[in-house]
Design goal:
globular; Glyco_hydro_3_C_sf; 21 helices; 6-stranded mixed sheet; alpha/beta; TIM Barrel; 3 domains; Beta-glucosidase; Glyco_hydro_3_N; Rossmann fold; Immunoglobulin-like; hydrolase activity, hydrolyzing O-glycosyl compounds
């Protein structure tokens, strides 16, 4: 800090603790006062687990790291605490008490009284024992409903703050490029506009609760070759700029995200953790991001062990620090002694340490962690007796009635009805055959990063902590007069055929057969979906297709129900099932939502965030493809999906009519508007999801045949109509041109109002006029949508 600059501060407290002084002055003073060891101590985390007895957190032993000696580390300080609630099962109140005791110790042990910043996972709800398990992000995408997702994220954030957590490692903004990738369930979908708008809403909700949202994985992780986890990414600069980066750009500009996590992958030989052009040049210098960049777990060490771009730990530290990674997670490996020694002997400039440190301390100051009245005890534990932590057990409820109601709302909006010959909704069936490995399986609704699947599986004697009714349970409540007979048929992935005959017999004797198939979430091959659970082809795991085909051979009508983490080819079921209901790991209330759709209590309104393939082997494929990526006469492989992106049916009917366009020509720096009427012509209330796609017939570089640029949910009573108006800025027609800059070109555009990417209902043509125009990160990112009532016919 410049000693000649006068700073008015409160007498009796250190400058860095004075909230009346600017954050910049406080941080500068603190950095000036710190030794090198105290500086680097703020640049890493320690993986811990809160104590279920209310004691201090204990370092977590991981097979990729050496043991951590907290007594040796804490005198110089500590930057972060890794996953205090997401490491072992712990009662929320006792965990909060344990974390508070540890934070008090950290603050008391270092010279400056700086506590750690605590982070945890919140991909599908706060990943803590007893916390609400919400639907996975792929279900968020299926809702096409940013407002509901924003409300869910705010609730998750409030729960995290209630127990002393500051940062959440979500959302995942990777755009699906290959559905064989195991982490598809963690993504929001295959379209960057959908991912960006839903992901930004999640960020806004989390940040509104005071939680630092962390965007991941920056960037290219989902574009790995052959859908393999951590495989190299082969995307070119144009695909990266136009498909993979826009969701991050939107979430930073409009969501206010305060943290970004790098991707593990390397793109064209450059690991993201070493990419200065990406993490500093684009993220900070161009986009203006001023938060912290945190390493994906072990990513800095991977520069040495997996990527081979560093010879030792100090080299990995210097490479990552120079690129722009501020915090090493989950443990200290490179930013501790190796970094300190390399700075001391001149191999790494101390200025790089100070740059990262300034960002970290700024965030801690803004979170109130440097204030003199900082209290490690969260408000939920006010009045707790420190001598009787056991009395706290059960005091904090992270899965109350309001949470569960919200989880059900999200799940209901996310269920997608793929096909229906009129069999659904079911009309008081007397005998229901409930068949399949997910028919009576509680965890079938949970994703990989839910606490029971991520952590609980390692603690088999511990209760789940939340209620997980099976589909059998909820169907019994939904159809109390029906006789429900269950036959598993086969396992998720065991390939066992021995139970298929029994299942077929059960189906033969029923009025309706519900065949409930899909995935089991897990980690690194322990499941069929999840991190490290990649597949070679999109065929149903194990012998599930054989089971499905055996039931389809019968005369009993078959409803295929999927509880899965990715889309699968369904073979004969596409044409022969009476109906198909798709759900992507819908969370703890998911079976209530599915049962409601089957009975008709819920009118389905979900839409596919990823296409369902017709065959298992035509990957990678996406609706967002250029002309050569679609079916053609020069290849015998047809990538056309069985059900396209954006598809979903309802139990009512909608009529689209009376399209008007305000102008036939608009300047390349202007906008144009389309208006039309949507009317519910069916016999019950329902929700139509109107989607707006842009087709650019002629461009200077190859473009996707179409891409989503807007959408809205329209809720209508029978006979009710709404006038829908989309105002489209010309900026949304921009793309990365031949010179690498984003450009809006003059020429004709086709705008398609559609019920899915394969179902255009109304089409307008507008010509952009004037000069070619270059745009940057300040361009307009959204179509504006309005709805007005229309008089009944």
């Amino acid at each position: 800090m410049n000693a000649n600059v006068a700073v008015d501060q409160t007498p009796g407290i250190s400058l860095w603790n004075d909230p009346t002084v600017s954050v910049t002055a406080r941080v500068d003073a603190l950095i000036d006062a710190m030794t090198l060891q105290e500086k680097t101590a703020q640049l890493f985390g320690v993986w811990v687990g809160a104590s279920d007895q209310g004691g201090e957190v204990a370092p977590h032993q991981h097979d990729m790291e050496e043991p951590v000696d907290l007594d040796a580390l804490l005198p110089t300080g500590l930057g972060q605490l890794t996953r205090p609630f997401g490491t072992v099962p712990v009662d929320p109140a006792l965990g909060a008490f344990s974390l508070a005791r540890t934070q008090a110790r950290i603050a008391a042990t270092n010279r400056f009284g700086i506590p750690a910043l605590a982070h945890d996972e919140c991909l599908a709800g706060f990943a803590a024992w007893g916390a609400t398990a919400y639907p996975v992000p792929l279900s968020w995408g299926a809702t096409f409903d940013p407002e509901t997702v924003r409300r869910m994220a705010a609730t998750i954030g409030r729960d995290m703050r209630a127990v002393g957590v500051h940062q959440g490692l979500a959302p995942v903004l990777d755009v699906v490029r290959d559905a064989r990738w195991g982490r598809v369930e963690e993504t929001i979908g295959e379209d960057p506009y959908l991912v960006g708008t839903i992901g930004t809403a999640y960020v806004q909700g989390l940040e509104s609760a005071g939680i630092v949202a962390t965007l991941k994985h920056f960037v290219g992780y989902s574009a790995s070759r052959a859908g393999r986890n951590l495989a190299p990414s082969s995307v070119g600069p144009r695909e990266r700029a136009d498909v993979l980066l826009p969701p991050f750009e939107m979430a930073i500009r409009e969501g206010g995200a305060r943290s970004v996590m790098n991707a593990y992958t390397d793109t064209d030989g450059m690991p993201s953790a070493a990419d200065e052009d990406l993490l500093t040049g684009l993220l900070r210098d161009t986009w203006g991001f001023d938060g912290t960049v945190v390493a994906d777990y072990f990513a800095i060490a991977f520069l040495k062990t997996l990527h081979g771009v560093a010879a030792d730990w100090a080299g990995a530290a210097g490479t990552a620090l120079r690129a722009g990674i501020d915090v090493e997670l989950p443990n200290v490996k490179t930013y501790g002694a190796p970094l300190t020694e390399a700075v001391t002997d001149g191999r790494i400039p101390e200025a790089l340490v100070d740059r990262a440190l300034r960002r970290i301390l700024t965030q801690k100051a803004m979170l109130g962690l440097l204030d003199p009245d900082w209290n490690p005890v969260p408000a939920a534990l006010d009045g707790a007796d420190p001598d009787d932590p056991a009395a706290l057990r059960g005091r904090i409820d992270l899965d109350g009635p309001e949470n569960r109601a919200l989880a059900r709302t999200v799940a209901e909006k996310a269920v997608v009805l793929l096909s229906n010959d009129g069999t659904l909704p079911l009309d008081r069936p007397r005998r229901i055959a409930l068949i399949g490995p997910n028919a009576d399986e509680p965890i079938a609704v949970l994703g990989c990063y839910s606490f029971p699947q991520h952590i609980g599986v390692r603690h088999p004697g511990t209760p789940l902590g939340i209620e997980l009714p099976t589909l059998r349970d909820t169907l019994a409540a939904e159809f109390p007069d029906a006789e429900i007979t269950v036959a598993r048929g086969t396992g998720i992935d065991d390939g066992d055929l021995s139970g298929i005959g029994e299942a077929a017999q059960v189906a033969r004797e029923a009025d309706i057969a519900l065949v409930v198939l899909g995935d089991r979430a897990g980690l690194f091959g322990r499941g069929t979906s999840g991190e490290g659970c990649d597949v070679e082809a999109l065929v149903l795991p194990g012998a599930q297709q054989q089971l499905l085909d055996a039931v389809l051979d019968l005369e009993t009508p078959v409803v295929t129900v999927l509880l899965a983490g990715r889309p699968y080819a369904l073979g004969r079921a596409v044409a022969e099932s009476a109906a198909i209901v798709q759900s992507f790991f819908p969370g703890e209330e998911g079976t209530h939502a599915i049962a409601g759709v089957l009975s008709g209590r819920v009118n389905p309104s979900g839409r596919l965030p990823v296409g369902v393939p017709r065959g298992p082997g035509s990957q990678p494929a996406t609706y967002l493809g250029a002309r050569l990526a679609h079916t053609s006469s020069v290849s015998n492989i047809d990538p056309t999906p069985a059900f396209a992106f954006g598809h979903g049916l309802s139990y009512t009917r909608f009529d689209w009519s009376d399209l008007t366009v305000d102008v036939q020509e608009a300047p390349t720096d202007g906008e144009f508007s389309l208006a039309f009427t949507v009317r519910n012509t069916g016999g019950r209330s329902g929700t139509e999801v109107v989607q707006l796609y842009l087709h650019d017939p002629v461009a200077s570089v190859v473009q996707p045949v179409q891409r989503l640029i807007g959408y809205t949910r329209v809720e209508l009573e029978p006979g009710e109509a709404r006038l829908i108006r989309f105002t489209v800025p010309a900026d949304l027609a921009s793309f990365t041109g031949r010179d690498g800059r984003r450009v809006v070109e003059p020429g004709e555009l086709e705008v398609r109002l559609a019920a899915s990417s394969a179902d255009p209902r109304l089409t307008a043509r507008v010509t952009l006029t004037g000069a070619e125009r270059h745009v940057d990160h300040t361009r307009r990112l959204h179509t504006t949508v309005g709805q007005e009532p229309v008089a009944r016919a």
